[in-house]
Design goal:
By secondary structure, this protein is α/β, with parallel strands linked by helices. The protein has a single domain (2-227), classed as 3-Layer(aba) Sandwich (Rossmann fold), CATH 3.40.50.300. The chain has nine helices and ten strands. It has helices at residues 40-48, 70-76, 93-99, 111-116, 118-122, 133-145, 163-180, 191-197, 220-227; strands at residues 2-11, 14-24, 29-33, 55-60, 63-64, 78-81, 151-155, 183-188, 200-205, 208-214. The strands form two sheets. The chain has a six-stranded mixed beta sheet, with helices on both faces. Helix 3 (93-99) runs parallel beside helix 6 and helix 7 runs parallel beside helix 8 (191-197). The radius of gyration is 17 Å and the shape is globular. It starts with a strand and ends with a helix. The model has no long low-confidence stretch (mean pLDDT 93).
């Protein structure tokens, strides 16, 4: 569903992502894990088109999107929940969701969004900036999922959330993925959350993949070693 070949991303002369390659299969979830500063957010910004690739190739569901702009990648089936959510704080909950429907003829929030996130229905006229961290994350995911993606990118979705909310978030993402058939690529540092959602693990260390493992055979001790400062 998503193939990355030899991706290199740099800020000026500082190369952050080095020859990264992976394949995300249809319906699969991959957790990209690693400490802060290892290149996870840089990689995700390059995948959605917010940062240019120095080298490499990106193919989404058989379509080469290497040179596509970010909005073209979204139209092709890529959705992105950025680190920090980046909602529009002065827009209401419903207005934020409608942003994801900007190019759709019927700009009505689908019922399944509010069925999945009932708190958003209760707060649909509240300003997004007045929501709690967990509610904002639900809104950011709803805004992305409403585009009907083939691949959902989530960058640090558990950041700033308490454990009980993290567990519920994992359950909700698994339900959404199962019911709507998209694949997920998740940047994460919380191993317990990753174990709930991921089929496969990739560890990013200094801009390169240093470890890969399936959930059934994952070496949690080794992953912890990479996550420890």
């Amino acid at each position: 569903m998503l193939t990355a070949e030899g991706l290199n991303v740099a800020y000026g002369e500082s190369q952050v992502v080095r020859d990264v390659s992976f394949e995300l299969r249809a319906g699969e979830t991959i957790a990209v894990m690693g400490r802060n500063g290892m290149g996870k957010t840089t990689l995700f910004k390059a995948l959605i088109g917010l940062l240019p690739l120095r080298d490499g190739r990106l193919v989404l569901d058989g379509r080469d999107v290497t040179r596509a702009r970010s909005y073209e990648r979204v139209a092709a089936g890529l959705a992105y929940v950025p680190q920090g959510r980046l909602l529009f704080p002065q827009l209401t909950v419903e207005e934020n969701i409608l942003v994801g429907l900007e190019t759709v003829r019927d700009r009505t929030v689908p019922r399944y969004i509010y069925d999945t996130f009932p708190v958003l229905w209760d707060m649909r006229w509240r300003l997004a900036g007045n929501l709690s961290g967990g509610q904002q994350q639900q809104l950011a995911i709803a805004r992305a999922v409403v585009t009907r993606p083939k691949v959902l990118l989530l960058d640090e979705p558990t950041e700033g959330l308490q454990p009980s909310i993290i567990k519920e978030l994992a359950r909700t993402l698994n339900v959404l993925k199962s019911s709507h058939g998209f694949a997920m690529l998740v940047s994460e540092q919380v191993l317990s959350f990753a174990m709930e959602v991921a089929d496969r693990f990739l560890i990013l260390d200094k801009g390169e993949f240093a470890y890969e493992g399936l959930r059934a055979h994952v070496d949690t001790a080794r992953i912890h070693a990479y996550l420890t400062v």
